[in-house]
Structure to design on (153 residues):
């Protein structure tokens, strides 16, 4: 039930954000360029997501690897294979306490570090958003006026 509610909330937030960004991009260009603006906004959002996942995923994995190496300088405890240290939560839950607690601490540290590195990016994005110029949303009157203009021969 928790996961269903979390996915519902996340989907609702992304859904509302996505439409506003596409509408803003479409409103900022001439009517003839709406398709280009829409595809460019979608492409840039996908590239930003891909780049963000790559960068922050690297930070997460790098920090996790370093933390696990510090927690187990001589290798995993006896009877525990190294691949189980980064397994699924069910696998980690079955580890003995001597291995499970440092593994969980390493994951916590890696996730905290990743979010800490995201803070400057969020601050920069917020500051940049303050410099966006406000454009009045085009209405029906604007569409009719545009449609009545003669087409070039």
């Amino acid at each position: 039930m928790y996961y269903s509610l979390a996915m519902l909330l996340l989907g609702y937030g992304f859904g509302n954000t996505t439409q506003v960004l596409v509408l803003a991009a479409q409103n900022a260009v001439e009517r003839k360029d709406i398709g280009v603006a829409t595809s460019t906004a979608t492409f840039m959002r996908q590239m930003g997501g891909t780049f963000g996942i790559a960068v922050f995923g690297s930070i997460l994995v790098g920090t996790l690897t370093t933390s696990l190496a510090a927690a187990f300088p001589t290798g995993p405890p006896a009877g525990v294979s190294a691949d189980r240290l980064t397994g699924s939560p069910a696998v980690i839950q079955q580890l003995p306490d001597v291995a499970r607690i440092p593994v969980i601490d390493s994951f916590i540290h890696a996730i905290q570090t990743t979010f800490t590195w995201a803070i400057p990016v969020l601050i920069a994005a917020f500051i940049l958003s303050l410099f966006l110029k406000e454009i009045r949303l085009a209405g029906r009157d604007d569409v009719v006026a545009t449609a009545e203009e003669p087409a070039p021969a």
